[in-house]
Amino acid sequence: MENEYSKPYYPFESDSENTDNLAFQKKERPKRFRPKIGISMGDFNGIGIEVILKTLTDSRVLELCIPVIFGAARVFSHYKRLLNIEFTFQQHFIDDENLANSIHNQKVNIVNCSSAKVDVEAGKVTAEAGACALAALEGATKAMKEGWIDALVTAPINKDNIQSETFNFPGHTEYLTEKFSVDKVKDSLMFLVHENLRVGVVTGHIPLKDIPTAVTAEKITNKLSLMLRSLRQDFGIAKPKVALLGLNPHAGENGLLGNEEKEIILPVIEKFRQKEHLVYGAFPSDGFFGAKEYEKFDGILAMYHDQGLIPFKTLAFNEGINFTAGLPVVRTSPDHGTAYGIAGKNIADESSFRNALFLAIDTLKSRIDFEITNQEKNQHKQRRKEERKRNRG
């Protein structure tokens, strides 16, 4: 019997003209859009390989994109035998000088990123798995920088065993922010997404004791600006409506339980409202989610990690997506970790990973439309300017 997960949502029609790998930088609206989607395999002792396999064994995925997995082909061969999953792929090697041109447009591609032999130990934390996860991430990042993959979906890593001289970050978000941020502004927004629920955080992977000093007017302003732009550019919402949560219990209770709302958060909200942005708050987090106020907003900005992620994962744990807003590249990931406890048991739910893959495709299309709209607006302004000049002459 079919269930709700057996009929996944496909963002594009597939019966029109084929325009494989039409890079979104071309500012053209394609009839059919099949981008190359990079996938970094993450920690191979977790559930990452399983959810990738379960997602990509649906042949309809190839109608929407060209998957390019960065990792180790022998790991996928191991798991397809272990889980009894039929899975075929085209194998490549990261040091191939012709790699970008050798990707097969009608198959799943796996790029071997390390020559080291690996031993899969499902459910265990090993240094070997961390090193392989880092090699896969570095390979995918290099391909993004070279421009021959259009987006990146990252499978879960272990934030401890991946640490090395080249990876000294709390997670994917901070690593990719360092690699892809522009204009000397090293900032991005952790954006958790499920259907119309979108939750961002002002402070991410930092200790709880450091949050009060980290929540500054400048930080809130930067994150709110990133959220507003992402809602317009990545989600196609022309006039987004955003809620900000308070830092303290009951949003400070008018200063009784803390002054951060009155002194920091509310002044930022007022500045944005003066610029005609639809920004509201500061709302007490418990009542806001308890009363389903989140349904009235396009985006929600929480002040710290658990304030935003606990209610989000309660509402959308199996299907939520982690999206990194504010970067010039598109990166998504499933909103779960390595889940070592169920690794290799063929019980992992691939819904979140599948949704992350489709959101990456959708976001690329939204960015095409956003750039085209801006280009058309600028052309219209220029025509009006030239017309006024002629009329004066």
Write out key terms for the chains shown.
alpha/beta, 15% strand, 393 residues, 12-stranded mixed beta sheet, globular, 12 strands, disordered N terminus
Description:
By secondary structure, the chain is an alpha/beta fold. The protein is 38% helix and 15% strand. The protein has a 12-stranded mixed sheet, with helices on both faces. It starts with 35 loop residues before the first strand and ends with a helix.
How many beta-strand runs? 12
Instruction: Report the span from N to C terminus.
Output: 73 Å
**Gyration radius from CA atoms, angstroms:** 22 Å
Kindly state the percentage of residues in helix: 25-40%
Largest sheet entry: 12 strands, mixed
| Strand line-up in the sheet with most strands | 3-4-2-1-5-12-11-6-7-10-8-9
Uncertain segments: 1-27
Mean pLDDT: 88
Number of helices: 11
Can you describe this structure in just a few lines?
This protein is an alpha/beta fold.
Write the layout of secondary structure elements.
Blueprint: E1 36-40, H1 48-56, E2 66-71, H2 73-82, E3 90-93, H3 99-102, E4 109-112, H4 127-146, E5 151-154, H5 172-180, E6 189-194, E7 197-201, H6 211-214, H7 217-233, E8 241-245, H8 260-274, E9 278-283, H9 285-290, E10 299-302, H10 305-316, E11 321-325, E12 330-334, H11 351-392
Parallel strand pairs: 1-2, 1-5, 2-4, 3-4, 5-12, 7-10, 8-9, 8-10
Antiparallel strand pairs: 6-7, 6-11, 11-12
